[in-house]
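Notes from the pairing session

We agreed to fold both candidates in a single pass and log them together. This is the raw record for the first candidate, unedited. Please don't reformat it; downstream parsing expects exactly this layout.

Candidate A
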Amino acid sequence: MKIKLIVLSLFLFTTGLLSAQVKFTAEVSREDIGINERLRVDFNMNKDGDNFTPPSFTGFAVVGGPNQQVSNRWVNGKSTFSKTYSYYLEPTSKGNKTIGQAEVKIEGTVYKTTPVNVKVGDAVERPQDGNNSNIVPEDNLHFVAEISKANPYLNEAVTVVYKLYVSPRISVSNYRMLDNPSFPDFWSQALDSRNVRVEEGTYRGEPYRYVVLYKTLLYPQKTGKLEIDPLAVSVSVDVPSQRRSIFGGVIYQTVEKRVTSNSREIDVKPLPTKGKPANFSGAVGSFEFDVEPSKTTLDAGESLTTSVKVRGRGNLMLFELPDLTVPSSLEIYEPERKENFSSNANGTQGSVAEDYTIVPSRKGKYPIPGLNFSYFDPRSETYRSISTEDIIIDVENGPVGAPVNANANSDGANVANTNKQAVTLSGDQFRYIKLNADLKAINAPAFFRSWLFWALLILPLLVIPIVILFGKKREARANDVTGNKIRKADKLARKYLSEARKNLGEQQQFYIALERAMHNYLKAKLHIQTGEMSKERISEVLASKGVDNTTITQFIEILKSCEFARYTPASMDTMKQDYDKAASVISTLDKQL
């Protein structure tokens, strides 16, 4: 019995080791082909590698490829990864051919495939792979990620455009995105790409048609080399088959083909330290800055609004505005942040403002010191600073504080002015007091025992039970901790989702407002800055605060829906469902936090 257990344990241990090993193999579609046929060879790896080097393909001409496919799946809680480089080959002569070893570097170790032997014979009457439905799409369909700038500065806008190139030799009838794009090292903003148009272009020097399937605006949040992960799409391709109609025409068949974009790398430069202002808060772009009061003349007790505003093009959502300071005689309230910007392929443009409400309490003239705003201009590669002038607030009417005339003596103490004047009485200071009242009797009905008398007497007795009942209900409501949490959470959800509710029916504005509401909630509740709002960071912070995994998953799913719905049409019912989900998640989060 013990021997059997030992043998079984060794078997399971060996199987686990084999399953954890790196696999890098070469596979061919056929090992025996005619000289007029084509051959497909796939180089497969079960872990992601770098510096892939194909063999020389001696005796073959490469007619298609390399085409890259990446798959990362979760099955029964286990992650399965695969990456394939595919080539289509055409033999140049008959005989026994050998496809040599391909190389790849995985986790610092170089792996090589086993050579594959292929026998090339005489030409065949009906080539099996000449118009193969798998080869034709591979050779005439390409999904490419194009970036606007490969070497940007930190927080400089980079546009990524995913284009599907289609050769005139094939026809595409439909497409479907297979996954939500994720950019963990970037602040991303999906751009509107619902209006898909077919345009003419070239790919590798040959004429192609192409459509833009997805566009996104990225702001890198790290320096160094950052990788943009591939994006996969499923395409329905009409390709010629081996069958003919009764009239001799070629019969076409529809093939579902999965194509993956190329992986792109961006080398992000750090912002220069030379000439960096002390008040620099991370603004990168081209901006204007001003401080605008709603009025400069008012009375004590009235209010004015002073707006600190930045407008222009750049990372408007990723930096803080300078704080406004006022004299102690002016009461200032927490600012209200207003964002009015939009994003396109050229970047984000618009304005960001913080409106301060200021209330003076005394008469006088009060200066509000000017502010200084600094930003980095990537075009000139220099820092720029904008300063505003002081603002004088003139309070015309109101209480005046007793003036203090103080002079510093030699010891640094203040000596009060002791000059006094005698008070002179004019004699008519009591002229407003009437000494002879000249009162007259009023013939009014008796109040005692009137209906008003009895009503006022009985009314308090009737009010007492109502007050007691109201007090008990109020006490019960105050003691209802769970109910209060639910009511508070629902109120908070309505507050942050009000803008999204207003835009129900307008898909783009609705999902932008919904995503902003979710982010603003995290800002207010957890003090997470906009630049830290990657999905991974949000999940990490919520988990550290004791939020359960189900709620975290629902929150992240709503953010993904906001990104995905910007380039996929959504119905009114879908928007209402997403709104209800967001309200429910915010309510649940607030109770758990």
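Candidate B (folded immediately after A)
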Amino acid sequence: MKTSTLSTRTTFCWPVVLPSLALVLVLLLFSMLAPSQAEYIFNSSKSWITTYFSWFYTLAVAAFVILLIGIAISRYGNIRLGPDDAEPEFRFSSWIAMLFAAGMGVGLMYFGVGEPIQHLIAPPTAVVGTPSAAREAMLMTFFHWGIHAWAIYGVVGLVLAYFGFRYNLPLTVRSGLYPILKDRINGPWGHAVDVFALCGTIFGIATTLGYGVLQLSAGLTHVSGWDFSGLPMQLGLIAAVVTLAGLSAASGLGKGVRILSEINLSLAIFLMLFVLIAGPTLYLLGSFSENIGNYLANIVQLTFRNFTYEPANSENWYQGWTILYWAWWISWAPFVGMFIARISRGRTIREFIIGVLLIPATFNFLWMTVFGNAAIWVDTHTAMGALGASASNVDALLFTFLDYLPMAGVSSTVALALIAIFFVTSADSGAFVIDNIASRGNTQSPVWQRLFWAVILGLVAGCLLTAGGLKALQSMTIVAALPFAIVMLLLCFSLLKGLRADELHARQKLSHASNFWNGQRWRSRLVQILRQPTQQDVRTFLSDTVQPAMEKIAEELLKNGVEAKVERVSEDKVQLEVIQNQLRDFVYGVACTQKLVPDFALANTALPTSEQAETFEPTTYFTDGRKGYDVQSLVESEVLADILKQYERHLSLSLNADASLLQHAPSHR
């Protein structure tokens, strides 16, 4: 009775939840009690990884992009994430708004001005203060926020959505490894994968909340003139964000998260249009065209470039920007990928990939052009380098930039509201995802669990902000991205195996013998289906059924003046050959073929049983290279009919001028 009561109160998978909470507590205490030591250890680890594994990150992210594009243009793109008749749960606009808000909304507000300005004053290869520096600043910003970032999210999201909705597995990371681990996903290996994903999600969101509150407090201070930079005010902001996130999470995915995401996207578009109109409009429109062209022209080189041939400072720039971005996106991939998967049921794989790769990336390009190029123009034409001089204070850089535009108070207030809602949507969608992992994909979890995880996120962010351990934890999250990148490559391999099995399942046709079967002799047919034939069974079938049918056909052909013969090539092969001058001979042969039986089939009582590790089938073969088929269920009259059907096909093709080329090819006698 106790267990039953507990199961109605919680859907937690305790082998995942308890180790995760313990690990979070240990790392949190270490970062709080010894922040300088923690920062040193994690920063040293981060430096070692970015130095020795930058090539691995480069190739891994390239593989993710190539894989998704390849799947989208292949026949696999038609597969639906769910049953073949499944319909999308959310309308397209809501779907785009939710994946955008969860994936990059906070980052766009933080780096929309900050990154282009920082690249402008310290470009990787261009000369500072030249047009080339501005062009390179926008190119690198596009590269970091383009399809590569969304490919990282898309891989995890597609794998989880595919195995979750197509294979009916729990919507957790472990399910993506099902083709590799099989039933072991339910054991310690599966628990370990989910613990890793759960902890990474908590730390990734918590550190983002911590840094986001710094920007929010800087914006409030800038707009209101009051000092919001104190720790009590910042903790109060975290409490407010978590409270709103809890209310949103409690209302459900289809209400709170969806509504806030749509509001967010609307405000973002409004603010972007304001900057476009109030700023140097013609310059921004021209910049967007040139930025897109520059990005597309260099995308292949950028994908694989690691600055090996450039000076050391360029390589350091690459490790400090691109590699850290790739690691940061990978560390966020369990959270964003699972959220995208959760909202994508019913869409085709092609629709998923196009939607995830192109639409958010295009919006990112628009956003970065409007804010980034506008900031560059202001810095070089109006501010006279003032924005570049304050680039180190990224928290307040957006609001400093808006001061140079008309109605700065209004636009800064909208920006503050946008940042706040972005944080709420990140926190409430994060609570959904964390609860999903902790519950092994159970969608019927009680409301208090989502509230619990929202509180955990707030506590972790608040504790780290108090102790100054945010930088240490950020570095630790980036370090953790390396092993998860390896897990992601395994997920890619699993996805290909799953898609291949899906295709074979869809292409599997009824046996050839079913074309002749009319329901008679059903008992003997059932026994034959359930029995795994031996090699001797097939040899007997060739002697007693196939060869007599061939001999009757050959005898009748000879009576009609057509040269034909039956040859028992070996114990395992018999064929009928019709000799034709100036044409390829017609051959209808049947051979005993051997197939291996999977291990699971040998122990499954619902499948044809045998102690053999292989099965044997009488399979047809022809001289024109066509694939043969199994005829083991045919009786003699049906074999006769099948031979005549194939012979009639052969003659029809011989009389067709367009198809007769192969028929006239010489045969070796």
